[in-house]
């Protein structure tokens, strides 16, 4: 590794100010300061990076260009003959997506006695769930309550959260933890069974439960194991490319595409659950992402074309601390838990410029301000970056804390020759989470009978900015609800003739406003081949 | 920071390419024009999708890695290991007896271990795989769980095992049993009873119906625990 002079000098200043900073707590911003900071520096407030939708249920709303192109894109089923009478798979409940929400839904639907068919674009478990590091919130300790959790999430979400959905989230939090605990998730506990909990950005109580910094991976592998034990039929490498409705407009299945055989197939189902996750791989505004390879907003496209509205699709979460160096992990997540454990964000002069546990949107905006307007960044690979002073953790909490609480972070950097226990790391915001998504009610139901949605592809629970640890919670709470309700709905549902009429109608709507883009959607996979290799 | 960007020669799935030396194996494949479907997942070292086997041209030694977490080196010849079949057994975690012989009953092949250490040597996470299998064999599930905790189920170890153990499945079962039989969190159970008894309904109802300015005042003035 070759370090520049600027880099080495700046790192020395971080080291020089560390001892003094150990005993300081930077003040938190006032509400007005936060508003101004977000308006001026958060990417969501950019004027030039959004498109106003011309067709579909959110006509007139703005969303990021890349998402608009896909929402208003061309269906993959229009240019081929798909025989809807030829039903390849028949099931009570079709789950689209094999991440945390999809797996939780499948388990609960099966528990209700429904037959369950789970299709997933990559493998079961390939998801953002498995990459969540920091933890899962739930108000289960003395001095905390679901009502306090509610207020924290509401303030973090700029008071735009759907009150009913948020209430559902916080009330079912403790039960979700217990469900995972009983499935055998190894939560960090004291010898007497007390959950070890920490703060996250914007929490007023320590309610972040964790499994070291493998929280999501640990939850996902247990859920995956459970799905494999539950007689659930799993179809990997087979993304859904369009929903099927019946002539009454109820959900009736999906068209899936097999990556290996390159065939399209019809799945008939009495109910459908969309659990396809987020959209980080669309790289809004050119940001790198911490997301899984498959995060391309597919479920949003399917639901939108079928007439289901989206909420807050313009609100995107940039995680404050993406790796800015070394190049091999550019954009990868550095868990917020590093800051929960006391590490500060420090500029090139060695000064801490904000409280490390402000909410994510505020911290991301403050980093961008520091790096742009204030010119206090250190030049890394693709632009300025700031320091996350990781060695503070062991100094504050004792030797061995990082090894116990942040083993994945130590490992990720060690592979490329950096010991984060000894030296601070360079970070910059990375595209992390889709705050908005498909509109659902407290039964996880959309406006289409028999169509449910859960996980990162839904919107409303978190307003326009989610708090750390509320996503692992929402995939469990709403995944389970969706599975339960879909199975119960399937008991009496009698789907009629399968149709793709809604897709043709959408195509006519496109033509009527003069959209002639041939960009196919859903996108399915990003393209990182620099124009080489297969097209598209 | 300048990392040099010197070009090197690699052989990816049997094809020869020239790629910058600061790329990971995965990025080198994409740089060379591969549009990945299989063998690519989280791209952050958590999912185990991108297990590869490689050797350096002219060398006998066989190595293994996660393609997203390993830099290319000159002369690298890379083959893939994906969808490696493992012998995962079906069980109902609630019905498995809480005794320290249960893993041996579910996965009796662990007793066939000949201590060749091929599993440990092949682990891209540098886990002591053989050690955690030994812990499972002697019924020490807590040790097996702790030692296997960083396993990403890439199953390279299983591909190297002469007695055909499915190590990732053994570790997973040990962790689930350890998690499930850990001391009960009494505060959690109490809180669930309180929720069910409706203790929080009134306060939440109140919050749901307050105006935004009132909520903002409550939020800005709320006590933040140290």
From TrEMBL, chain A:
User: The FAD-dependent oxidoreductase 2 FAD-binding domain covers which part of the protein?
Assistant: 92-472
- Catalytic residues, chain numbering: 369 (proton acceptor)
Q: What Gene Ontology molecular function terms does this protein carry?
A: steroid dehydrogenase activity, acting on the CH-CH group of donors
Q: Which Gene3D superfamilies match?
A: FAD/NAD(P)-binding domain (3.50.50.60), Succinate dehydrogenase/fumarate reductase flavoprotein, catalytic domain (3.90.700.10)
Q: Does the keyword Oxidoreductase apply?
A: yes
Q: Which SUPFAM superfamilies does the UniProt entry name for this protein?
A: FAD/NAD(P)-binding domain (SSF51905), Succinate dehydrogenase/fumarate reductase flavoprotein, catalytic domain (SSF56425)
Which keywords does this Swiss-Prot/TrEMBL entry list? Flavoprotein, Oxidoreductase
Q: State what protein this is by name.
A: Fumarate reductase
Lineage, uppermost ranks: Bacteria, Bacillati, Bacillota, Negativicutes, Veillonellales
């Amino acid at each position: 590794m070759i370090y520049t002079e600027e880099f080495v000098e700046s790192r020395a200043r971080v080291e020089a100010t560390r001892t003094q900073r150990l005993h300081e707590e930077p003040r938190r911003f006032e509400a007005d300061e936060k508003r101004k900071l977000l308006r001026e520096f958060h990417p969501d407030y950019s004027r030039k990076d959004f498109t106003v939708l011309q067709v579909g249920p959110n006509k007139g709303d703005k969303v990021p260009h890349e998402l608009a192109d896909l929402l208003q894109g061309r269906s993959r089923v229009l240019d081929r003959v798909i025989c809807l009478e030829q039903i390849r798979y028949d099931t009570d409940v079709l789950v689209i997506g094999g991440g945390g929400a999809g797996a939780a839904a499948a388990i609960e639907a099966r528990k209700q006695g429904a037959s369950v068919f789970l299709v997933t674009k990559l493998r079961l478990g390939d998801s953002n769930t498995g990459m969540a590091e920091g933890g899962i919130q739930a108000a289960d300790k003395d001095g905390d309550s679901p009502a306090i959790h509610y207020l924290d999430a509401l303030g973090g979400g700029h008071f735009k959260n759907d009150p009913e959905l948020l209430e559902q989230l916080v009330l079912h939090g403790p039960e979700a933890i217990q469900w995972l605990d009983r499935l055998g998730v190894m939560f960090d506990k004291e010898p007497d069974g007390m959950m070890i909990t920490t703060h996250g950005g914007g929490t007023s109580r320590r309610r972040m439960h964790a499994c070291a910094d493998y929280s999501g991976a640990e939850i996902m592998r247990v859920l995956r194991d459970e799905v494999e034990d539950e007689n659930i039929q799993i179809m990997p490498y087979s993304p859904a490319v369009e929903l099927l409705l019946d002539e009454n407009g109820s959900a009736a299945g999906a068209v899936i595409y097999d990556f290996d055989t390159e065939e399209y197939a019809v799945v008939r189902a009495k109910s459908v659950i969309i659990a396809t996750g987020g959209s980080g791989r669309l790289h809004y505004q050119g940001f790198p992402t911490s997301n899984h390879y498959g995060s391309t907003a597919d479920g949003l496209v399917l639901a939108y074309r079928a007439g289901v509205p989206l909420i807050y699709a313009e609100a995107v979460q940039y995680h404050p601390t993406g790796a800015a160096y070394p190049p091999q992990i550019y954009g990868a997540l550095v868990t917020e838990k590093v800051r929960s454990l006391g590490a500060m964000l420090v500029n090139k002069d060695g000064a801490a410029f904000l409280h490390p546990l402000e909410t994510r949107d505020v911290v991301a905006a403050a980093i961008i301000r520091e790096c742009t307007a204030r010119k206090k960044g250190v030049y890394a690979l693709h632009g300025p970056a700031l320091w996350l002073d990781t060695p503070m953790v062991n100094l504050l909490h004792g030797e061995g804390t990082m090894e116990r609480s942040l083993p994945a972070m130590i490992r990720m950097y060690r592979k490329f020759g950096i010991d984060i226990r000894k030296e601070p790391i360079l970070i910059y915001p990375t595209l992390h989470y889709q705050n908005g998504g498909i509109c659902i009610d407290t039964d996880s139901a959309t406006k289409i009978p028999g169509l449910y949605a859960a996980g990162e592809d839904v919107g409303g629970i978190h307003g326009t900015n989610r708090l750390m640890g509320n996503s692992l919670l929402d995939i469990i709470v709403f995944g389970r609800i969706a599975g339960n309700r879909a199975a119960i709905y399937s008991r009496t549902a009698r789907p009629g003739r399968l149709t793709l009429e809604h897709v043709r109608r959408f195509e006519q709507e496109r033509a009527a406003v003069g959209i002639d883009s041939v960009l196919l959607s859903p996108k399915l996979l990003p393209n990182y081949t620099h124009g080489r290799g297969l097209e598209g | 920071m300048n990392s040099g960007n010197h070009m090197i020669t690699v052989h990816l799935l049997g094809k020869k390419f020239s790629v910058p030396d600061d790329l990971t194996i995965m990025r080198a494949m994409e740089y060379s024009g591969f549009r990945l479907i299989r063998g690519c997942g989280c791209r952050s070292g958590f999912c185990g999708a991108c297990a590869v086997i490689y050797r350096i041209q002219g060398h006998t030694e066989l190595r293994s890695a996660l393609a997203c977490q390993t830099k290319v080196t000159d002369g690298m010849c890379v083959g893939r290991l994906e969808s490696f079949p493992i012998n995962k057994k079906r069980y109902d975690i609630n019905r498995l007896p809480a005794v320290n012989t249960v893993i041996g009953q579910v996965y009796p092949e662990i007793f066939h271990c000949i201590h060749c250490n091929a599993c440990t040597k092949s682990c891209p996470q540098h886990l002591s795989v053989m050690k955690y299998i030994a812990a499972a064999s002697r019924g020490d599930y807590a040790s097996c769980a702790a030692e296997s905790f960083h396993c990403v189920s890439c199953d390279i170890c299983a591909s190297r095992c002469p007695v055909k153990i499915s190590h990732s499945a053994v570790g997973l079962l040990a962790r689930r049993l350890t998690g499930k039989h850990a001391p009960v969190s009494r505060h959690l159970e109490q809180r669930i009873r309180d929720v069910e008894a409706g203790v929080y309904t009134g306060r939440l109802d109140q919050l749901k119906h307050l105006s935004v300015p009132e909520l903002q005042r409550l939020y800005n003035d709320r006590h933040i625990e140290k």
